[in-house]
UniProtKB/TrEMBL annotation:
GO terms for molecular function: hydrolase activity. Gene3D superfamilies: alpha/beta hydrolase. This is Alpha/beta fold hydrolase. InterPro entries: AB_hydrolase_1, AB_hydrolase_fold, Carboxylesterase_BioH. Residues 44-252 form the AB hydrolase-1 domain.
Length: 268
């Protein structure tokens, strides 16, 4: 990422800009340094000016302790200013949770789309989130990043054999390299239920789920309707909301499926 904005607390936030047209800012989820949204950014760039950034503490973006969700919202505020004052916003996974909170806080969002936000709507999943949030912070603070990553994968529904397979894979070191952000990412999601202040959102919202849950690779421990229930809850709470489900998609949506839906929503 080759461009930078300075957040309110002086933290440098890196981003890539591509394309021409209405402004769209992309927000990544846990363990993402911006790479996850790169294919989507490339797809949207023929119709939009796309800002794909690395959240604080990730990639080339700096960080300034102590962490607070408000600082991440200020990071987005700086990107909105860079984009000319207003923009559409897209958030994937826990990045969708951050995007929703930013819109509720009054950022100048024209239209907001979120994908597979991991709010926990059933009691068992919510208890799993409570245990995860209680343990991941100490693991990160003590430098036990392998433990933090294992906790995250357990929270995300991975079975023990799936976690063991990932630990043995060549991708494990790259995931542990960003595992220090897992505690802040969990804090960003609050108690992993949709916060009441989402009712304050005034812009149109598109809540999308992939259908990825029970039986999906890496998420076999989640309820079958995990992401659908979360999207339904978002749509019920936000005043101007639409709902879509993309069948046969993974937790990272294919750009040729997600892109057309976003283009239609952002350019009604």
């Amino acid at each position: 990422m080759t461009n930078y904005v300075t957040s309110n607390d002086g933290t440098s936030i890196s981003y890539d800009r591509s394309g021409e047209g209405p402004q769209v800012i992309l927000v990544g989820g846990a363990l993402d340094e911006g790479a996850e949204n790169e294919p989507l950014a490339a797809w949207l760039a023929d119709s939009f000016t796309v800002y794909n950034y690395a959240r604080r503490g990730r990639g080339k973006s700096g960080t300034t302790p102590p962490y607070a969700v408000e600082r991440e919202i200020e990071d987005l505020e700086a990107l909105f200013a860079e984009a000319g004052g207003r923009a559409h916003l897209f958030g994937a996974s826990s990045g969708g949770g951050l995007a929703l909170r930013a819109a509720a806080a009054g950022l100048p969002v024209d239209r907001l789309a979120v994908y597979d936000v991991p709010f926990c709507m059933d009691d068992a999943s919510h208890e799993r989130a409570r245990v995860y949030a209680a343990k991941v912070g100490p693991a990160v603070a003590e430098g036990r990043l392998d433990d933090a990553l294992e906790l995250f994968l357990w929270f995300a529904g991975s079975a023990p054999e799936e976690i063991a397979g990932m630990k043995a894979s060549p991708y494990w070191p790259s995931m542990t390299a960003v595992a220090h952000t897992l505690a802040s990412d969990a804090a960003c999601m609050g108690d992993h239920r949709p916060p009441a202040e989402l009712a304050k959102i005034t812009c149109p919202v598109l809540a999308v789920d992939s259908g990825a849950s029970a039986g999906s690779e890496g998420m076999s421990g989640l309820p079958k309707d995990f992401f659908a229930s979360a999207a339904n809850a978002i749509a019920a709470l936000v005043p101007h909301a639409e709902r879509q489900t993309f069948a046969d998609q993974g937790h990272v949506g294919a750009p040729d499926v997600l892109g057309p839906a976003l283009k239609k929503f952002f350019q009604p």
